[in-house]
Amino acid sequence: MLQSNFLSAAPQFDPAATDNPGSHRRQVIVESTFVVLLIAAAFLLRLWALSEVHFWDETVYLQNAEVICCAKANYSELDSRPPLLSLIFAAAFLLWHHVYAASVAAALLNALGPAFLYFSGRMIAGRIAAAIAALLLAFSPFFVGVFPPGFVSDATGNSLLSDSPAVTLIVLAFWLLLRALRRPTSLRFASAGFVLALAVLMRFASLSTVGVLSLLVFVDVFAAAADRWWNAALACGAGFAAGMGPNLCWSRFRYGGFLTTLHRGWGNFEGPGESPFFYLKDFGNIFSWITLAGLALWIGGWAWEKLKWKAGDGQREDRHRENHLVSAVERTAEKRSRRIEAFLWLWAVALLLFFSALRHKEPRYAMPLAPPLFLLAGIGLSVLVRGRQTLARIAGTALLVGALAYTFLPVRQRFESPFVDDEVSEDMQVSDFLNDNVPPATVLYSNFNYPVFAWYTNLPVHRLPESGPALYDALNRLPGDGILIAYKASDEIAEPRLEWLDSNPHFRRFREFPALVLYEYRGCSGPSPCQQR
After folding, report:
1. What is the pLDDT of residue 527?
2. CA nearest to 165, candidates 46, 8, 60
3. In this structure, which long-range contacts are made by residues 476-482, counting pairs with CB atoms below 8 Å and at least 24 apart in sequence?
């Protein structure tokens, strides 16, 4: 076990600290009530508008869950997708075999993130800053799934994507690391490493965050004996290996390489190139203007302290000062607090540079920046309620509450929809038609939305190249008879061309829908592959 006393003088940031048991009990009740209400409200917002309609990536995780729990064998992307979310959905399906079970599980995972962020922030910045950060993660419109006009994103509050659950696991790992730094034991560091591995298994892109968070082991340990940070790093690495090991071994025995699934999963980040300033341009839409204001206040406070220091303003002001004297313990705690705040900036900047360097960008990819940014913004905004005069504190509190209410106001749009949305998509209508009108062994061929049809049907699905000569070559060499799903030309997809299919003798129109056409495919006789006439 690690035996160390670093962080034994952990910062006690809250001015309400007291030895009065009654006051402490009230504080615990208030804090517990806040956390429970926070989770409940975040869960309700993310569960609202339950629907059976789901799109591409959502159905991938649902389909993989069916493969895991129910041996559904018509299509799988377990060879290239992180498995943890599908494993959670599979467990939910064992309790209730309905898509709503997956929605409940995802909403609960996403709602726990703000609570873990509060626990983390309380350890490094106090309850007020932590509460502000938690509220930002729980109710910021982007993270709930409410977007301004003209802003498009796949991330929604009740989506079945892995982005938000991965953020929850990242924040949980951060909290566990902070607890391990406060009272170091091998088990605590190993637990943090294990949760970091779960974050990667939830979303492979979390590897970038894991790389940054692993540096936290050294933030408060470098001043101690050399063997202590080394033991902490070994314990954290052992926990990470224990979490990743089963998946790596499964990848090796199933697909021929320990890193095969990770390598294939990287292909999901391929796509059209975007500007390196993509996330800076959309920063306000993703993290809201109040986060920018909080960051500005943090920077302003830091600059003011530096100016005071250079001007020889004497000892720094402290919330726990007594007779204008700052104890050595409190001063050490403040230094450590500043180190962790500097680490938060490192965390945010490193991830921003990483995601900006990727060729393909989507707003939801930037969600892992939320924990450090919201914590820093919470620290900055908490200045508003810490004025010296009572009137200043009242005015600052009113300003902060008003700003948060204004920021979260668009979230009310979630409740404009019914709790259960019974909308039926065209893909669901097509799937119902196929389930009712073709033999169970009929193969579906598609180059678009193939996971959707795999999820809504039990028919075998054969994935085709997306476009170009490879697509038409594959259409000329289909392995057997079946049904081709061909979408009409749109901004998202333009191939295969319907006129090409209509001129090919092996394709016959079977049924037409508003956005797509079903073609019956019949191969040619003889050993030679079919060729375009």
Report:
1. 44
2. 46
3. 476/529, 476/530, 476/531, 476/532, 477/529, 477/530, 478/445, 478/521, 478/523, 478/530, 479/443, 480/443, 480/523, 481/443, 481/521, 481/522, 481/523, 482/442, 482/443, 482/444, 482/445, 482/521
Look at residue 403 and give its three-state secondary structure. helix
Answer yes or no: are the C-beta atoms of 297 and 380 closer than 8 Å.
Answer: yes
**What is the mean pLDDT of the segment spanning 511-520?**
96
Read off φ and ψ for residue 399, nearest 5 degrees: -65, -45
Strands in 461-463's sheet, in edge-to-edge order, are: 461-463, 443-446, 482-487, 516-521, 507-512
3-state secondary structure of 464: coil
Q: Alpha carbon of 63 to those of 52, 68, 90, 163, 452: distances in Å?
A: 14, 9, 10, 18, 9
Report pTM.
0.90
Query: What's the pLDDT score for residue 327?
Result: 56
Compute the average pLDDT of residues 303-319.
64
Average pLDDT, the chain: 87
Distance CA 72, CA 251 (A): 20
Task: List, in order, residues 6 or more apart from 105 with CB less than 8 Å away.
Answer: 88, 89, 91, 92
CA dihedral 417, 421, 426, 427 (to 10 degrees): 120
Q: What pLDDT is attached to residue 320?
A: 47
Beta strands in 376-515 (DSSP E): 420-421, 443-446, 461-463, 482-487, 507-512
Looking from the CA of 102 toward its CB, the CA atoms found within 13 Å total 28
